[in-house]
């Protein structure tokens, strides 16, 4: 997965305020340091946000600011109090209250006059004016105050500022521009401008001015948010980022559409005074356009700017750009709330200060000529100064005498400098352009092919820095390019590679990876936008069309095939990525015999492509992962394990993002996973009631070490004791079991919960265990005696998750009521309640330091809470489309989250950026339905795809259309009539579709929203006018389908205490039956919505329901294998047949339309049972055997056909009465027929993953290349 770049974000809020006040006082850092008796370095650390003063020094500092006139007389108390609290918040220590009495006495002292300030600034304050105090106090940031009015910013007191500076550069070396700063301050603080653009050519200093100004006025805003656009982020991502930051205390739900996000952002800009800075806006605009037009796909930015400019709010958006966006031109003006500041060059005095370290010599006239020649452009002059010193010994006059050397533009200067670079220096420049952001020295060294020593790389970087071409971070060997230079080098790289491909003489194509598969996701997407796509556009302008371009690329691939792997470099990987970007796939392409480095094939279809005899390294593929139920991370943070709905357990190398091992863990869902404290064992618990221990290291890796059996129902949670000697497990049977690892004995069974036990956690000292359950209680157990010490109540509804704080002083519980409660371990008192933005907390986790808590939510979001001092929401991470089933903190600020959709996401907690997505693919036939005439079959999978099949006579079937139906697994499908069908899924939506055989297309007619969680089941009333839906939110909703427009939700039926799995209407449509996860069945009167009665059998999920044709009886099937017959009028259970079959997936059950047959799927098989009155028996038919587990079954409307689908996506359509297989339906997997014969560089686990998605070891097509690369 590559190196994760991570920097500790400085808290600049106190530092910026202190800097502003010092400048208002007219004092230098040296003068302040002398007055306080500290070093100048200490002052720099305070103002830089990396250290904070003690309370004694802070009082002295406030006294200095008062004496030297930094505080506004009318607002002095407010400003001093703000500075005090800002120091407390930034230092994140327990707060000491601001001493109001002391400051009142200070106000009585006489302030120095302005004339006296400069003459006395170096004197030390007398002891009589300095009061001492106890050691300082700090507190965590509390909720920011809401601003109800629109105050005059110019006169408003300083406020508590939340600043996020993102990629803002250091502006400490700032010279000149005082008039521009004053203009900006007047526009923003006095004229209340809503949008300001700083315009100027590249390198003129727009960004530096914007940073300096934002720092100077930050204390006038509640939020300062800096975002660089140099990598052209998509607008929806930028809006999500800004909204999450500005709304962190409110927990707002993020709209899915752009317009909704714009509206929400504007609402936040009205409620709070914010300064947003968007740097490098020109990257969004079309190059060479004189009208400020946007690049394709970025037009939404124009709408955003217009909204910000025209709508009333109390904030300001500050832009830097080389040209004015087109929609702002008619809005900009001297009296308008939209202003544009055109930057020109710096004066000679400022330039001399800027170039002081270059030690150039020249007369004032020579300096004037030099500055005039480059129009005062700071970047141009810095680059030119390197030439003056290198070639002319620092003599300006000598440089000016050489007319041909006087290059006029920055690009000419860069051209000149580039031609003087060594091969290694130019290679490093290209790699820095590819990396797109700060990159460590180690990663740059790894990028380079061939034997290049660290010393040589350092020397080359030092030379580049001296030439002002490369920038280095303040701390550490981390490097990047200045935006203008990065743009230049990127364009040069594209032009050079384009020329190489057209001339069939690749060099840079082989030595540099234009896109790095193992980069963080947002960087890789930027590499596509800024390098691959421009390169393809350049090539298309010569080739004419995509077909000719593809032929040229594949011809180049053929020419590389004869070279040794070592000589091919990055060429093969670049060609794979170019073809994939060009076509969106690499189907039927021949990459055999190539060295393929850094190829990104996640989500890229490669059916029948050949990688035979290829050498694959640092490349990423789609993984065969279905809906994910569980997640755990090894103690050292190197291994990630996820458990799927199929029962498989997959292990990944977290740092590499590559698969390590696949365990066939359980016959159905692997609900629970936990690593042992030493990381050598993995415990798993599943739907099959078992608990297993696996070796995950050493020679026995992948072997099941021990099997624990004793639970009577699903196992939902497992946890190791801190010493690794005990394992606790819990589940649906309401028990907690303690197992001894060494012997496998069950030491204790803990009883107490009334209902399923959802989660477990050991205390850090191993003496206690905390559990949560369906009975709305959290229970604390003492392990020595097995006694329940406390029963804690603070939730309404199921409590899905518990977690102990790393220090053991408290623990947390998360419930379906949307609350996370923090409990004191010693007393059992409720310490705090965190209210989530959504209805339920499905999973929670503390970070290793105990300062953060993460919660996974049912709407696909992850909330991060700061726990230092007063708990507050830090940010909300949006990215999953469905239910977040597990979260875990990793090393170095990493957070991992998984969802039922099969996606694993890796997040950087500090920035909130998604670093990596481990993309899974599931072929599971999750749901299906026949059309009324039996000619069509529709099935849905875990990827949200719907496929429409036509069943033709003679056993022929063809897929008419495959289309995206939902965001995540599709759980239920039914036909309304021969032309329309309805589907529901993980995304909480119900959709009505029309189909057209002639066009081979479908169309979504309506989308209905009403539930707040996954919709598991649908049922259509016999007259087709009403629809019922059952959800994970424990409700049933009735929908009126008679309306011409949008369907209306008639009623929401409450009463179930767990998720609703199954539904059935009575033959006359007057009654509705619903079955839930606890085995409870409710009978509802459809007209009134009243619950007539509740039927309670075994506490086992009800997978299917059907009424008898006369409506007198109800049949129910449970996942424990039992079948029950109920009398509707009395609720009496007439009969129960326990021998229906083995434990089955309760969704793989279906009654025939007349209720006489029951089909159920199991591992590899399909069973059919005959129901006749009060008797039931298994039929003798033998059905085709599935290769995997059966996940869904469906009868045709006439009961003649029976379809069954498995986890490989294979669907058998059989005659129900005879078992004869009529049709076999299977859609292509992503790598169907992909040839990996003799492939090198892949582990056995990686090969197995590719084969699970259709890859095979076909015939050899090319000879094996003669040698392996020496370096990966």
Automatic annotation (TrEMBL):
The keyword Transport does not apply. Keywords: Repeat, WD repeat. Pfam families: HTH_3, NB-ARC, WD40. It comes from the Bacteria. The keyword rRNA processing does not apply. Residues 148-162 have a biased composition (Low complexity). WD repeats lie at residues 621-662, 663-697, 708-749, 750-791, 792-833, 834-868, 877-917, 918-949, 963-1003, 1008-1042, 1053-1094, 1095-1136. InterPro entries: Cro/C1-type_HTH, Lambda_DNA-bd_dom_sf, NB-ARC, P-loop_NTPase, WD40/YVTN_repeat-like_dom_sf, WD40_PAC1, WD40_repeat_CS, WD40_repeat_dom_sf. CDD domains: HTH_XRE, WD40. GO terms for molecular function: ADP binding; DNA binding. Residues 21-65 form the HTH cro/C1-type domain. Residues 131-162 are annotated as: Disordered. SUPFAM superfamilies: lambda repressor-like DNA-binding domains, P-loop containing nucleoside triphosphate hydrolases, WD40 repeat-like. PANTHER family: WD REPEAT DOMAIN 5B, WD40 REPEAT PROTEIN. This is HTH cro/C1-type domain-containing protein.
């Amino acid at each position: 997965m590559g190196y994760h770049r991570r920097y500790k974000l400085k808290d600049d809020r106190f530092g910026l305020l202190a800097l502003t006040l010092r400048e208002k006082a007219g004092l230098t850092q040296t003068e302040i340091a002398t007055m306080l008796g500290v070093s100048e370095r200490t002052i720099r650390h305070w103002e830089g946000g990396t250290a904070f003063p003690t309370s004694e020094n802070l009082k002295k500092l406030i006294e200095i600011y008062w004496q030297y006139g930094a505080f506004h007389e009318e607002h002095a108390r407010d400003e001093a109090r703000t500075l005090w609290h800002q120091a407390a918040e930034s230092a994140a220590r327990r707060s000491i209250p601001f001493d109001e009495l002391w400051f009142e006495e200070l106000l009585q002292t006489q302030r120095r006059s302005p004339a006296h300030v400069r003459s006395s600034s170096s004197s030390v304050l007398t002891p009589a004016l300095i009061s001492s105090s106890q050691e300082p106090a700090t507190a965590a940031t509390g909720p920011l105050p809401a601003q109800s009015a629109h105050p005059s910013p110019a006169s408003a007191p300083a406020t508590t500022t939340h600043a996020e500076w993102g990629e803002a550069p250091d502006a400490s070396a700032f010279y000149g521009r005082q008039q521009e700063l004053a203009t900006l301050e007047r526009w923003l603080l006095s004229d209340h401008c809503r949008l300001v653009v700083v315009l100027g050519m590249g390198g003129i200093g727009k960004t530096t001015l914007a940073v300096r100004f934002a720092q100077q006025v930050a204390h006038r805003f509640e939020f300062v948010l800096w975002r660089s656009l140099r990598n052209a982020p998509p607008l929806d991502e930028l809006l999500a980022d800004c909204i999450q930051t500005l709304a962190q205390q409110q927990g707002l739900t993020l709209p899915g559409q752009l317009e909704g996000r714009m509206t929400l952002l504007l609402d936040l800009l009205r409620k709070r005074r914010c300064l947003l800075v968007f740097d490098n806006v020109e990257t969004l605009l079309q190059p060479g356009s004189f009208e400020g037009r946007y690049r394709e796909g970025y037009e939404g930015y124009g709408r955003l700017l217009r909204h910000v400019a025209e709508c009333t709010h109390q904030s300001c958006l500050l832009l830097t750009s080389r040209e004015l966006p087109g929609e702002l031109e008619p809005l900009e003006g001297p009296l308008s709330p939209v202003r544009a500041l055109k930057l020109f060059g710096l004066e000679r005095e400022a330039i001399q200060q800027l170039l002081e370290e270059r030690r150039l010599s020249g007369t004032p006239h020579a300096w004037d000529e030099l500055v005039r020649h480059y129009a005062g452009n700071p970047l141009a002059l810095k680059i030119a100064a390197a030439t003056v010193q290198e070639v002319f010994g620092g003599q300006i006059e000598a440089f000016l005498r050489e007319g041909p050397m006087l290059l006029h533009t920055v690009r000419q200067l860069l051209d000149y400098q580039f031609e003087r670079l060594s091969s290694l220096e130019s290679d490093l420049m290209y790699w820095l352009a590819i990396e797109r952001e700060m990159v460590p020295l180690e990663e740059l060294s790894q990028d380079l092919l061939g034997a290049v020593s660290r010393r040589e790389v350092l020397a080359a970087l030092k030379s580049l820095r001296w030439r002002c071409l490369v920038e280095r971070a303040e701390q550490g060997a981390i490097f990047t390019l200045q935006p203008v230079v990065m743009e230049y080098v990127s364009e040069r790289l594209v032009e050079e590679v384009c020329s190489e491909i057209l001339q069939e003489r690749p060099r840079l194509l082989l030595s540099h990876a234009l896109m790095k598969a193992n980069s963080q996701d947002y960087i890789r997407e930027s590499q596509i936008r800024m390098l691959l796509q421009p390169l393809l556009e350049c090539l298309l302008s010569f080739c004419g069309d995509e077909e000719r371009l593809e032929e040229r690329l594949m011809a180049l691939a053929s020419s590389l095939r004869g070279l040794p792997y070592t000589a091919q470099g990055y060429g093969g990987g670049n060609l794979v990525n170019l073809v994939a970007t060009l076509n969106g796939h690499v189907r039927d392409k021949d990459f055999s015999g190539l060295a393929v480095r850094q190829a990104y094939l996640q989500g890229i279809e490669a059916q029948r492509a050949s990688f035979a005899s290829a050498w694959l390294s640092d490349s990423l593929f789609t993984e065969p992962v279905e809906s994910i139920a569980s997640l755990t991370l090894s103690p050292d943070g190197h291994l990630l394990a996820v458990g799927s709905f199929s029962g498989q357990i997959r292990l990944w190398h977290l740092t590499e993002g590559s698969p390590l091992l696949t365990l066939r863990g359980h016959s159905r869902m692997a609900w629970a996973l936990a690593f042992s404290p030493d990381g050598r064992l993995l415990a798993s618990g599943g739907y099959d009631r078992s608990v297993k221990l696996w070796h995950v290291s050493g020679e026995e890796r992948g072997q099941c070490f021990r099997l624990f059996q004793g639970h009577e129902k699903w196992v939902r949670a497992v946890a190791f004791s801190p010493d690794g000697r005990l394992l606790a497990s819990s589940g649906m049977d309401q028990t907690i079991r303690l197992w001894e690892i060494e012997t496998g004995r069950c030491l204790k069974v803990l009883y107490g919960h009334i209902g399923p036990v959802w989660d477990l956690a050991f205390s850090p000292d191993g003496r206690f265990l905390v559990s949560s359950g369906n009975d709305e209680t959290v229970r604390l157990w003492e392990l020595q005696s097995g006694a329940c010490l406390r029963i804690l109540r603070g939730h309404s509804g199921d409590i899905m998750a518990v977690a102990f704080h790393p220090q053991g002083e408290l623990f947390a519980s998360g419930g379906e009521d949307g609350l996370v409660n923090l409990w004191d371990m010693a007393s059992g008192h409720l310490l705090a309640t965190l209210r989530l933005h959504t209805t339920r907390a499905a999973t929670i986790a503390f970070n290793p330091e105990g300062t953060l808590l993460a919660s996974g939510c049912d709407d696909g979001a992850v909330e991060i809470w700061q726990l230092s001092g007063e708990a507050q929401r830090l940010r909300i991470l949006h990215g999953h489309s469905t239910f977040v089933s597990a979260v875990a903190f990793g090393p170095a600020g990493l957070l991992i989250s998984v969802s039922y959709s099969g996606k694993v996401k890796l997040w950087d907690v500090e920035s909130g950026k998604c670093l990596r997505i481990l993309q899974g693919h599931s072929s599971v036939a999750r749901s299906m339905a026949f059309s009324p005439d039996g000619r069509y079959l529709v099935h849905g999978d875990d990827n949200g795809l719907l496929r429409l099949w036509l069943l033709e006579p003679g056993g022929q079937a063809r897929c008419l259309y495959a289309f995206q139906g939902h965001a995540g697994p599709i759980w239920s499908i039914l036909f309304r009539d021969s032309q329309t069908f309805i589907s529901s899924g993980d995304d909480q939506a119900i959709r009505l579709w029309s189909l057209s055989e002639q066009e081979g297309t479908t169309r979504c007619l309506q989308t209905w929203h009403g539930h707040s969680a996954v919709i598991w089941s649908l049922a259509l009333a016999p007259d087709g006018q009403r629809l019922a839906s059952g959800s994970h939110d424990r409700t049933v909703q009735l929908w009126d389908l008679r309306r011409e427009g949008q369907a209306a939700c008639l009623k929401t039926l409450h009463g179930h205490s767990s998720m609703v799995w199954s539904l059935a209407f009575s033959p006359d449509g007057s009654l509705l039956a619903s079955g839930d996860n606890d085995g409870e069945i409710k009978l509802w009167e459809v007209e009134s919505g009243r619950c007539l009665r509740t039927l309670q059998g075994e506490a086992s999920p009800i997978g299917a329901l059907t009424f008898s044709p006369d409506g007198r009886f109800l049949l129910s099937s449970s996942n424990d294998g039992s079948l029950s017959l109920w009398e509707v009028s009395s609720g009496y259970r007439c009969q129960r047949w326990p021998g229906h079959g083995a434990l089955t997936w309760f969704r793989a059950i279906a009654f025939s339309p007349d209720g006489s047959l029951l089909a159920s799927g199991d591992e590899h098989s399909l069973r059919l049972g005959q129901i006749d009155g009060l008797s039931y028996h298994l039929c003798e038919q033998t059905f085709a055997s599935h290769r995997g587990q059966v996940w869904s079954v469906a009868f045709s409307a006439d009961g003649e056909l029976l379809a069954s689908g498995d986890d490989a996506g294979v669907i058998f359509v059989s005659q129900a009465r005879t078992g004869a297989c009529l049709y076999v339906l299977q859609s292509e997997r992503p790598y169907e027929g992909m040839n990996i014969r003799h492939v090198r560089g892949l582990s056995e686990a990686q090969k197995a993953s590719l084969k699970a998605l259709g890859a095979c070891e076909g015939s050899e097509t090319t000879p094996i290349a003669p040698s392996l690369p020496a370096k990966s």
